[in-house]
Amino acid sequence: MKLYMHPASTTSRPVVQFITDSNIACDMQVVDLFSGEHMKPAYAALNPNKMVPMLEDGDFRLTESSAILKYLADKSNSPAYPKDLKQRARVNEVMDWLNSHIYRDYGYGLIYPQVFPGHKRRSDEAQTATVAWAKDKCKDWLQLLNDNILGHGKAYLCGDQITIADYFGYAILQVGELIRCDFSPYPNVKRWMDTMSKLPSTAKVYEAIRGFAEQVKAQPFVAV
Fold this sequence. Notes:
This protein has 224 residues and is of the alpha+beta class. It has helices spanning 12-21, 41-46, 65-75, 85-115, 124-149, 164-174, 187-197, 202-205, 207-215; strands at 2-5, 27-30, 54-57, 60-62. The chain has 2 domains: 2-75, 3-Layer(aba) Sandwich (Glutaredoxin); 85-215, Up-down Bundle (Glutathione S-transferase Yfyf (Class Pi), Chain A, domain 2). 53% of the residues lie in helices and 7% in strands.
C-alpha cells in the first residue's frame, strides 16, 4: 500500500498516526502542497480531487481521510474500529459530526482564512465577518464536544478505548495551535487533547505542523 500525504495536511496526520500505531505496512509518498504538486497533471490523474491524503492499495484508490481510516482499520482488524454494530455506529456518528460540523467552522471559517492566503476572504469586511461568525460557532461546538461527546467521564470520544474517531478528531482540533487556541474553558476537551498528545507517535507525526506554528507565533490571530 502507498499513502499519498503531506505532513502539514490536517487530514493526512490522523491516517499517518493510525498507520504508525497499528504497525501497518504502508509506503509514504509526500505530495508537496506548497509547490502545488497536488494540482499538477501527474497527481490529478491519480486523484481528480487534487487533495491529500489518498490511499493506493493495488489498483484500488481511496481519497477521503475518514474513509481511509475505516478501510485501514477493517483491513488490519483493528479494535479501534469496533465490530459491534452500535459501537461502530457511534464511531461513525462522531466522525461525521467532526467532519460536517466543527471542522467546517473551526478549520475553514476560523483558522485557515487567517493562516493561508488562499482561504482569505476578498475584502477586510468579509474576512472579519467570517472569522467572527466562525469563532462564535466554534464556542458552541466546543461546548457540545466538552459536555456531550466527552462528558460523563469518558476517556476518549466514544468511550474508554481509543478509536479512529480520536485520531481523526485530534488532528482537527490540534490545528488550532496555529492560532493559539485555548481549550482550558473546555476541561474535558483539554484532558482528551492532552491524552492524545502523549501518544508515543504524536511528537513525530505532528512535528511539521508544530514547526509551522512556531513560524507564525508572532502574528496576531483571533482564536477561541
